[in-house]
Amino acid sequence: MFRAALRNADLFWVILFCVVFLPEAACGSADADSCHEVKTAYMMRQIGPVELVPDTPGTDESLRICVHPGPSCCTSKMEDSYMMAVRSETQQKMRSYSFELKYLIAGHTKAYQETFESLVSFTSNLTSTLFDSAYSALASDCRPLVFQLFSDIKRHLSGDANSSLDKTVRRFYNDLFPLVYRRLLNPGFGHMSPQSYSSLPSSHDDCLRMTRQDVSPFGPHPHLLVSSLSRALGVGRALSRLLRLAGEVVNATEKATLSRECGRGLVRMQYCSHCRGMTLIRPCTGLCVNVMRGCLVGVSELGEPWGSLVVLLQRLAATLATSSNHNSMELALLAVRNQVNDAILHAQLHGSFPLKGSKGDKSRSLKKLSREFQGSVQRYQWFFSELPEMLCESEMEVEQHTCWSGQDVVESYAGRVVGSSLKAQRENPEMTVRNTDPVLKGAKQKLEELTQVNITL
Fold first, then answer.
1. Residue 327, class by beta-carbon neighbours within 10 Å (0-12 exposed, 13-18 middle, 19+ buried)?
2. In Å, how far from its chain's centre is CA 257?
3. Cα 334 to Cα 235: distance, rounded to the nearest angstrom
């Protein structure tokens, strides 16, 4: 329904104008002595200053695109206006078709980010209560350490390329050890006032941090924390990175410029018939496909790696929606509290007593979000491969016995319809295609690199 509306909206007012104000014959074929209906279409489509359209057909030897024997209702200045208009129209149609995809990607990127942040914030607060309830002597000094730990975890989940869980956990335990050593392990420090603690030289803390790496007072627990978080957060991190990439690709297609050669092909397809006074005839399907594939060769080249990206996004969403206790992100984050407690208890040479926290509804909301996204994104697996044909559908009439070939009215397009790849486009009969837009070329390369890196997830 949307496509039908898009296809017919630009003709509604022209047809109404013809029916009400012009003789019936003027809407079907050119009046040899008048450019009135051409001027009407030019005005209704808001191509440019209507004064550019001559009142009667003439000869303009400076025409470069819509050249044909005999008088014409077009001038070279009109060709320039048609060129600007048709490129703008095509880009607007591309944006309208990609709007839902862009909204889907942006909406779920934000939803996942908010869900991850909610989980991290909840488990950060839960971990802080460990020190309030079990290690009150450490509570005030450890709160900033816990906050930093979970801030780094959140950054890791967001897909930050410079984030390292190993460094994050190592820094947390390095900073924790001086506090545990002074307050819990060394009785001599137990009688010092808080003012005395703060007066110790920073080199003393540096020494304790280096000692922590040598003597491993927290046992295997730092390594176990890195291992469990890496395994459980890897899917969320990959999803964040690939969603960001998907958004960048969609934006790149909107920013890509249509070449002048593409503009010439679009004018021949869309407006050269107007020069002959035929403002309502539609381009032949084969002509449209060749022109659109030539114009959007860079977009079509995204098709295969984009399809791989969609498959990966589905797989990652499915993993989050059905994750078991073994690799559940929620449980891994909730377990940080227990693992920190176990590490401190290990340092005190005492037994470990796991503390449990409530998950709330975070798990259910993440799984629901992932199931919804998994189903929605599947519809767009071949979006960029099929975009040229989708744009042509908006130009076609269901009941059409003749069409515009780019040069004349015919019963069917006689040219060869070529494939959408750059190699196939070398044989395009409607335009010369030598390379793709640099922006789209870069997007394709990035797609191929990141999908290949994440293919084993």
1. middle
2. 18
3. 17
Distance CA 320, CA 328 (A): 8
- Helix axes 303-322 and 362-377, enclosed angle (nearest 10): 150
Of all residues in the chain, what percent are helix, strand and coil, respectively (each to 5)? Answer: 70, 0, 30
Alpha-carbon distance of 322 to 312, in angstroms, equals: 15
| CA-to-CA dists, residue 133 to 24, 172, 381, angstroms | 88, 20, 51
What DSSP state is assigned to residue 25?
Answer: G
Q: How far apart are CA 341 and CA 354, in angstroms?
A: 8
Please write the tens of the pLDDT for every residue from 43-76. 999 999 999 999 999 887 889 999 988 899 999 9
Would you state the structure tokens that stand for residue 288, as one six-digit string?
Answer: 């449209």
Ordered DSSP codes for 291-319:
HHHHHTHHHHHTHHHHHHHHHHHHHHHHH
Cα 239 to Cα 226: distance, rounded to the nearest angstrom: 19
Assign 145 a pLDDT band (cuts: 50, 70, 90).
very high
Give CA 446 to chain center in angstroms: 12
State the chain's mean pLDDT as an integer.
Answer: 83
Phi–psi pair at 162, nearest 5 degrees = -95, 0
Q: Residue 367 corresponds to which amino acid?
A: K
Q: Can you say whether residue 347 is alpha, beta or left, with left for phi > 0 and alpha for psi between -120 and 50 degrees?
A: alpha
Please give the helix or strand (H or E) that residue 354 lies within, else none: none
Torsional sign, CA 269, 273, 274, 279: negative
Strand partners, 409: 404
Residue 176 CA to residue 128 CA, distance in Å, equals 13
| Per-residue pLDDT tens digits for 211-224 | 666 677 888 999 99
Nearest to 127 by CA among 360, 333, 325, 365: 333
As a whole number of Å, the end-to-end CA separation of the chain is 39
195 pLDDT higher than 90: no
Helix (H, G, I), strand (E, B) or coil at 431: coil
**Stretch 415-424: mean pLDDT, rounded?**
93
CA gap 191, 181 in Å, rounded: 13
Partners of residue 404 on adjacent β-strands: 283, 409
Distance, CA of 102 to CA of 91 (rounded, Å): 15
142 and 176 in contact (C-beta within 8 Å)?
Answer: yes
Buried (b) or exposed (e) across 374-411, using 16+ Cβ within 10 A? bebbeebbebbbbbbeebbebbeeeeeeebbbbeeeee
Nearest to 82 by CA among 54, 46, 31: 46
